[in-house]
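--- STAGE predict ---
source: upstream dedup step, 1 unique chain passed
mode: sequence only
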Amino acid sequence: MATTDTQEKFTRPFHHDSNRYWFGDRAPPPVNQVTVDESAHWLAMGWSDLWAAPRVSLSYGAVFVVTAYLIFFGLSAVGMESLILPMTAGFMLVGPLAAVGLYEVSRRHACAEDITLREAFATFFRRSDQLLVVGLTLMVMMLAWFMVALLIFASFYHSAPPSMDRFFSDILMAPQAPLFLLVGTVAGGVIAAAVFTLTAISVPMLVDRDVSAVHAMACSVRAVSRNWKVMIGWAAMIVLVTGFGLATFFVGLAITLPLVGHATWHAYKAIIVDNG
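--- STAGE serialize ---
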């Protein structure tokens, strides 16, 4: 009996959706139209969730701070400092997947249930098959970003990327730097917009519902398309808050990642109609 109870508790967090692969008879869940005022409320609710479970949320964020430092010093140790900036920008692309456990914290909080840090990270394994599909999609997007960034750099600078201590003098002070930064920002923005459209709703939906990754990403595209004006502002807010965490030499991620993760959960719940 104890084993059965444990298994039930582990598989309980999402409700069943008989339209698992969407290409059946049932229509996808309806999408609400939201306002800018509601999007501000999502951030406030995210902040409330953060401090409703501060030990779990902040510890979750701290894990990614440590991970960021390991990547930073690892690249520096092997003489690949030139990859630090693209990797930092690339974090924006994988952020939705990194916040999976935070969506579960918010879901449990709404149900007045406690959760541990271990249970938050266990969410990755509970939906590992469908999250893997999203992860592979984001990996392709991130590799595309690296390739585009390399091509843009090669188009403007005819030398190998410099070390970090020479980056400012060799790259940012060069005559072509303004155009280089403009082209890089536009290219990165296009890739980031595609990632946001696919994941703004899909990843929290996979935590909440027993649906496929294809179903969830298609719903995300519909949701963003219907609320594109609000979602542009929402995406800008995510970039601003996450960028602040990165700009503090990753320390701020301990707060900004949980804040954005919890707020994203509330955005999902506001936009996707719950059919029960």
